[in-house]
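Board notes (copied after class):
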Amino acid sequence: MAAGSGRGPSGHGAWQRPYLNIFKHFRVEEWKRSARDGDVAAVTVTEAVARQGGGQRHHGQAALTPPSPFRKDARLKGSVYRIRGSVPGSSYLQLPRTPTQSLGLTGRYLYVLFRPVAHKHFLVHLDVSTQENQVVRVSFSSLFKEFKSTATWLQFPFVCGAARRDALGAAPADVRWTCLVLDLRSILSLYLSRRYSHLKSIKLCSSLLVKTLCTSDLLFDPGVTPGHRPRRGLSAMPREMAFPVPRGEQWHQLYDYIRFPSEGSSVLVDSIQKSCASPAAGGQSPADPGCQLPQPGALAKALRDRLSLVHQITSPEAVPRRCPVVMRHIPEVQLPAPGPLRAVAAAGQEKEQRPPSVADVAQAAAVADGDGGIHVYAAPRSRRCPQTVPSASQGRLLPDPILRLRTIIGFGGCSTRWVLWTQDSSVVVYPCHAVIVALQIHTGEQRFFMGHTDKVSALAMDSSSTVLASVQAGPRAVLRLWDFPTGSCLSVFKTQAQSLFSLSFSRDGAVLCGVGRDGHGKTMVVVWNTAQVTHGGEVAVLAKAHTDVDIQALKIAFFDDTRMVSCGRASVRLWRLRAGFLRSCPVALGEFQSLHFTDLTLEEPQAAARDRPGHTLFVCSRSGHVLELDYENVCVRSVRRLLPTQPQHCPGQEQPGNGAGPGIAINSISISSAFCATGSEDGYLRLWPRDFSAVVLEAEHEAPLSCVCISPDGRRVLCSTAAGSLGCLDIPSWGYSTLMRSHGGSVLAFSTEGLRKQMATVSRDNSVRVWDLSSMQQLYDFTAADESPCAVAFHPAQHLLACGFDSGTVRIFDLASSDLLVEHKQHHTVITGLTFSPDGKFMFSSCLQGTLALYSCTEQRSHVLRVLGNVVAAAGGSGSEALAVSGDSRLLAFVGPSRAVVSVLQACSLHQLLRVDISVLDTNCTALGCSARVCFAPVPRGELLVATSASKLLVLDTRTGRLVREVSGVHKLCCSSLALSRDGRYLLTAGDKVIKVWDYQMRFDVNFQVYIGHSEPVCQVAFSPDQQHVLSVGDAIFLWDFLAPPEGASVPALLPGAEDRGQLAPPARGSWSNKHGGVTSHQPSRMRGPKGRRRFDSPCLLAEGSSGKLKDACESPEQPVPVPPCRGVSAVRPAACPGVFSELDPEEEADVPGSSRIGAKGDKDASVPVVELLTNEELLVVRPKVRQESSRSPGGPAKELREDSQSAESPCPIRPDCYRHFTPRFRASLLPQSFLPAPAGSEVLELKAVIGYNGNGRGNMVWHPDTGFFAYTCGCIIVVEDLHSGSQSHWLGHAEEISALAVSHDAQVLASASGRRNGDSRCQICIWNIQDGVCTANLFHHQTQVQAMAFSRDDRFLVTLGDYSDQSLALWDTSTHQLLASTALSQPAHDVAFSPFSHRELACVGKGAVMFWLLEQQGADVSLKVHQAPAPAVLGPVELTSVCYGADALLYSGTNSGHVCVWDTQQNRCFMTWEADEGEIGVLVCGHHRLLSGSNTKRIRLWAVAAVPELRLRGPDARSSSVLLEHEMPLDGTIVSAAFDESLEMGIVGTTAGTLWYINWAESTSIRLISGHKNKVTAVGFSPDETHCATCGEDGSVRVWSLGSMELVVQFQVLNQSCQCLAWKPHAAAARGAESQHVVAGYSDGTIRLFSVSRTEMELKMHPHSTALTAITFSTDGEMILSGSKDGLVAVSSPRTGITLCVLAEHRGCAITVLHCTSKQYHALGVEGGELWLATSSDRRVSVWASDWLKDKCELLDWLSFPAPAGPQEGLSSLPPSLAAFCPWEPGTLVYVGFGLQKEALFYSLHKKQVLRKLSLPYFATSLSLCPAAPFMAVGFGERLLRLLRCPAGAAQDYAGHDDTVQLCCFGPSGRRLLTASHSALFVWELAGA
C-alpha cells in the first residue's frame, strides 16, 4: 500500500501538499488499507464522552451525565476512533495494513489530534525511514518513565495535560483534547543525527480517542485565524484539522497544543509535554527560548547545564533584530555549495543557530563581474534568501539562482596526489581543477568548495576536519582556508612563494606549512600561524626559508608543531621552527643518499604512547626502496626494496649499485597502527604488515598510483591514479570501490541520449566515454590507438554512437553489443561537426577542409547519400555544435563557406535554401564580423541563433534571413557554445570560463545569470534530454540542476523593492547534493583494482526532480510569490535496497488532486496493494483489494479505467539482461480513429490464411496434446490451426502485439495478452471460449506488457505477470473474471508457474531469486504469502529466467548463465544445480522424469532427471552427475516457446526465427510446421497461375509459398544483403508450366538476381545500379526487366543476356517507388508500341512510357507531377510513398495515391490528360492494388487499416487484423485473392463470390 512514491523527499510530494488527512486519504472507515485488533471502533464524540464519563462514576451512581470536563468535548460533533483495552498494545489501529508496506508520507510535521482516556495509559508507535535507508521507531507513551534511545528506537515519556514532570503516569481526569505536532525531521536529527525521508507506518494503541492524523510541510498554529496576520513560519490551522471554538472563547483555553521538539530547540529533551502557553493564547512569545523548551527542573542535570548554556547563547536580546549592513570589502563570488558534513549541523533545520554576520550578508550580495555591468548572484552562507544589491534595472531573471551545481565528474587537474580523509573516515576530499570536492563514499553525494580561479595544486586538513587549506597554481599562488563543516571561506591571502605544490597542517590546525618555489625557481618553505583563523583572527607568517634542497613532500610532525620532515631527490631532512627561523639537518643515509625519495609518513603510536620517545619515519623512493628511519637518533633502522617478479628495465627508474636490477618505483606511502600501504608506478596498491615481510593484499590499477592514504579508522585505503581515477579499498571485506573516473584531458564535446539517459564525451586523452546521466557513472570506454576523437553524437532512437576522429574517419558503434557497425572515410582531415537529425533518419558530418557529408540512417548500417566540398567554414566551430539541425529535421545550418556567412540547407538533400552574410547586418561595427556558433530555436518560432566573434548574438528568421533582434556583449570573448531549452524560454551560452543562462525573450533589464566553476574555457553547454539539468564540459564535466519552473508556471520578475514581498529561496549552503551514483564493488580471488577499457555494471537509474521551490521572504499573505508546481518524477527503487520500497499505487493516484486516473463517469478504480519482498526467513501477507471494474464483455460498455500510466517525465526502466523478457517490437503506427466495417454477411474479403509466427513473443504458442488444440500468435491475431487439415481460424480481439498465451488444463479457455491500445491506460488480456472462439471477457490491470500467464491446477485461478516496466503480479478469478489480488514486485520477474499438485501454490522467478507464493482464501477474501529464496551463491549474480514444476514437489528454474537449479518446494531451498547449456535458458518443460531446456544457443536438450528426487535428501551435497543428457537438437533460432505431451516424447517448439517446429524425440526428427519472415517484408507477388506467391524481406531472403497448403516451398537466401523488391515473370505464350516460373529480385547492393523456382537455383545475376533497388518488374511479355533504384535511375535489362540496354534518368535524385507495365493497342494514345509502363518516384512525379522492346523504342508519353503542402503535416513522422498503377477495368487510366493537398485517390486519363475523379481516403495511403477481375481497389494505411473500395461508387469496407502499417497489398492475376503484409506477417484474403 504505497501512498506515494515517497521513499524520500525526492518522490512525488505535490499530492501531499499543503497537508494530507491520513484517515481520510486511506479511508480508515473501510478497514481495507488499515488494520485493527481488539476494541477499536468509530464512534461519535457524544457517545465516546458518555461512555468515558459513565466509566468514571462511583458504584451505585445512577446519573448518566458525564463529568463537566467531558461535556465540553461534545462540541466536536463528529466521529472519532476509540481505541480501548486493558493493556496498551492489546487494542490498536495500524496504518498501513501490514508492517511490510509503507505510507510513503514525506511531510515534515505529523499532527496527532487525540485525547488520552482518563486514568488510562496509551502508546503510539511511528516507524520513520531515513535517507540512509534505515527505519527508526519513534514511540511515546504515558507508560514510559524515562527517555530511552537506541540506534533504531526512540522512547519518549508523554506527560498528559499540565502535569508536572515528576508526575508521570496515567492521564488525569481533566485531560483535554490535544493537538500534538511532531517535527519528525528535527527528532531524527537531534537524537540520532539522521536525515528524515518519510513516514512509513503508524500504530495507535489503547487507550485513547483519535480525531484524525495529518502530515504537512507547513507549521500550523491553532491560535491563528484566517483573518489574523500569522507570525513568521506559521499558518492558520485548516478547518479539517481544527477543533471548534465557541464564540467568545479562545482555543488555548479549551485544548492543549504541544510542539515537539519546540522551535529552535537544539537540546535533547527527555519528555513530551506542554511547556507553556501558546503565543496565541497570550503566553510568552515563541521567540523566547524559555517558552519553547521544557522547564530546566524537568530535565536531568546534564541537560539542565546544557540548556542553561543554550539560553545564554541564543538570548534574543543579544542580537538586534535589524542592523544596517556596511559593505567594507568586495564580497566573494561563490556558487551554491550543498551541505555541512556534520551530521547534527546538517539536520535539515531551517533556522541557523547564530545570526548572519556582515560577511554572511556580503556573501549574498550581488557582485559585478565586469561584464558590462552584469551581476553575478552568489550563494548566501545562511539558509536565508539571497539578497541582491538593487540596480537601476526594473526586473531580472527568476528564479535566482536558476542553476545549482549537482555533480562534477573530474579529478586532479594540477595534480592527482592530493586526496584526504575526514576524521570520521566517511568523506573524501580531493581537487577537481579549480573546485574542491568533498565526496561521501557511502552515498556518492558531493559538496563543493568554490572560489579558486585556477587549478588547485595542494590540499591539507587538520586532524579534527575543521579547517581545510587549499592553494591554487599559477603565478599568484592564492591560498584559502575553509571552515570545512560549513563550507565557508575563513581567509584568503597571497603566499610568499611564486607557487606552492605541497601543504601540511599540524595536528591541532594551529600551524600550516607550505612548500613551493619563489620567483627565481628556488625551493621555498613557508610556515603560517593559523591558530586564530576559526575565531576571526588573522593568518601570520611565522617563518620562511629558501633552500637548494629538492623537496617532494613535507609534513609537520604530529607530536610537535615546530618540527617538520621533508624528502626529495637525494635528501631526507628534519626541520625545526625556533625563534622565527626555520633550520634543517640532513639524515645520514649512507649508501642510499643518492636515491630519489618521493613520499614520507610518520608512524603515529597509540594515544597512550604518543608522548613516548622513539618516533619512526618511513620514506619511499623511485627505486623501490622503503627506508625506516629513527627520528630521535637521526639514523636508518632498516631498508627494504620492492623488486619486480621478472626484472625488466623501466625507463626513468634508478639503478643504484646496492640492488640487483631496477626496482618498482613507489610514489606514495601511508601507515597505520596495523599495516602499511604503498602505491607504485606499476599501478599496484599493496598492503604490507608493519615489518614488510610479505604482501597481504594488492589491487591492480590501469595507471600508476600517485597517492595512497589510509583512513583514520584504519579500515579503508584511498588511492588515486595518474589517469584521474579515485578508488577505495575496504580492508575488512576486501572490496574495491571506484569513487571517481575522469578524463585525463580536457573534454572537447559531448552528446546526450534521452531514452536510456546516457551521455557520451570525447577528450584530449584520446578516449570516448559513455556515462549514465542518472548516476554519472562510466559505462563504456573506447580508445583508438593512433587517432584522437574530436566529435561525438548519439542516434536519437537507436542505441548507436557516432564518433569522428582527427583522421577524418567517422565510426558508428552499437553500444548494446559494443561492436563497430560501419566506418565512413569521406573526410581526410579532422572532423569538426557530427550530428544526427532529430528523427534519426540522417547523419551529417563536416571536416576541417570544409567537406559536408549526408548519410542515410534508416538502416542500422548507414550509407552516404551526398558529399559537398568547400561548404563549411574551417573555423566555424567543432564537435556536435558546428552543424545545427532544426527540431523538425528539415533544415541544416552551419557557418560557411566563409566565416562571415551562415548557410541553411534542406536536410534531406543538402539543397541550399538560404545564405546570410552577417558582416553586413551591423552597419555600425567597423570590424568585419565572423560567425562562431549557430543554433535553431524551437520549430514554431522559425528562428536561427548566430553567435559572432564580436560577442554578439543575432536572431535570424529561417525563412527570409532577416535580422529579428540582436544582443550585444554576450561574453567578453567569443561565445563557444549555444543551447536553447526545448520550450524556447531559456538560452544557455558559454564563453571563456563562465556559463550564462538567458531569458530568450529578453524581457528584463538583467536578462541573464552568470555561473563560474570551470578553470578552463567551456567547450560545450547543453540541456539534458529531460530539461531538468544542464551539462557543461571543459576541464571537467559539470552537471547542474536547472531550477526553472515548468512552462505555464513562470515566475514574474522581481522589481526593485519586491524583495520585501517575496523572493527565491536558494539551496542551503553546505547541504549534500543529490546522488552521485553507487560505486562498483567486487571481490576477486586475488584483489585487483578496476580495469579500464571495459563495460561497467550499470547502477539503477535514480531519477530525481528539481528541488528548487519558491518561498515567501517575509511570510506576507498579501503579496505571495506564486509557487511553481513540483516536477513530477517517479521514484525508482535504489539498488542498495532492493526489497524496501514505497510507491504510489496507480489506483491510489486517482485520489490525488489533478490526477488523470478518473474514469469517464468520474468513478475511481479500486486500489491495489504494493508488496515488499523480504528475506528468506520472513513471510509477507498481502490483503488484496477487489477491483470491481476489472473486466468487461466485448460488446458491453467499457468499464475499465482509461488513464496514462506513466507521465512524460517518468524514468525509463532498465530492461533485464535476459532474452526471456518480452520486449514489444517498436511501432510508429497508430490505430485508426475511424473504422467502416462491412455489414454482417456482406463482407467482400475473407481472411483465409495467415503466414507467419511471431518469434518476438514469449510463450505465445500453446498445444494441448489430449484435445489437439493448437494456437499461436502472429502480430495481434491468434491463429488456431488444425494440425491434420492445415485449416486456420483467426481470432481477432487484440489491437497490439500479443506477448503471451495460456491454455487451461481442460482446454476450454485460452488467455491472451497484448499491450495497451490507443486510449487505454493498461494492457489487454482476452479470455476466449475455445469451443466457439468467442472472447468472453477483457481484463485490464497491468500497465505495460504481460510477461507470462498460467492457470491453476483446477483452472479456478489465472495468474498474470507484468514485464520489467510494470513489475506486478495479478491473480484473477476465471469464473467471474475479477481481480482477486495484485502485488508490485521490487524486481522484474520473467516467468511464473502454478504448482500441478496444489492450486494454492505458484512460483515466479526474477533477478537472483525464486518467489514462492501461497494463496489463502477466507470467503471472498484472498491473501498471498510470499517467500523469497535467493539463488545459490555459487552462481554469482544471475537472472532466473524460466521455471517449471517437476515430480515430487520439485521446481526447476533456468538462468541466464545456462544453469538449471532444482528447488525443494517444501523447504523452499535449492539443493542442486548443473550447467545445462552455454547460453541463457529461456524455456523449461518437465514431465515423467524428463526435463526439456531451450536456450539462446538455438538448441533444445532433453534431460533424464529421474534420480533428482532422491538427491533432495542429500541437501547441499547433491551432485548433478545423476542428471543425464538424452537428446539434443539444433534449431534455427532462439527458443521462445514449447509445448509437449506428458512424456515429452513429442511436442512443438517456437523460435525467434518465426518458425514452429514439430519435435519427435523417439524418431529424432524436427519438422517445420509454421514458418515466416523474421524481419520486415519488403515485397510480395503472385505467380501467373496463382498457385504460388513470393515474398522477400530485409533479411535477404526470397521465399516461395504454396497457396494451397500455405507451406514454404523454396527459399533463396543472400547473405549480408536486404532484398527490396521482386516480380514474377509472366508466362510466355509458347511455354506455360512450372518450368517457366521465374522470380526476379532486387537487392540493397544494386544487384538483380533471377531465380528459377522449378530448379531452385539462381540463373542470372546483374548489377545495373550503384545504389539499392526499390522497384522491379517484368515487361508484359517477360522479355525485359525494368528496375528502379534509390537514386532515381530506371534500368532496362535483358533476362536472357544480362545486359542493361538503357538507363533512364528522368527521376534522378528521388527514389523510384513503383514500376508497372500493361499492354495496349500498338497505335493507341498516338504512339507506337504494344506496352505501356509507368515509373513513380518519391517526389510525387509519375512518368508514363510507351515501348516496343523488339524495336528498341521507349518513348515518354506523359509526365505527371502532383502538388503537396509546403509545410510539414501534423502527425506525419515520415512522408507516405507515392504510388500509381494502371486501372485494369478502365484502359488508358491510371490511379495515383500519395502525399498531397488532400487524402484521396486520383483517377487520371491518359487520353484526356486530366483527373477524371477523386476518391476520398481517411488517411494517406501506404500501399495500393487494383483488382484485375472486378472494380475493386485495395488501399493500405499506416493506421493498421486495410480498406476495400468498390469503384466507381466508392463504397468502402475496412478490415482489421494488422498490428502495424499495411505496407504491401497485391491482388492475384485472377482477382480472387489479395495478399497483404504488415511488418513480417502475411495475410491471404479471398474475395467472396470471386
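Comment from the instructor: The two ends are 61 Å apart (CA to CA). The chain is about 5% helix and 40% strand.
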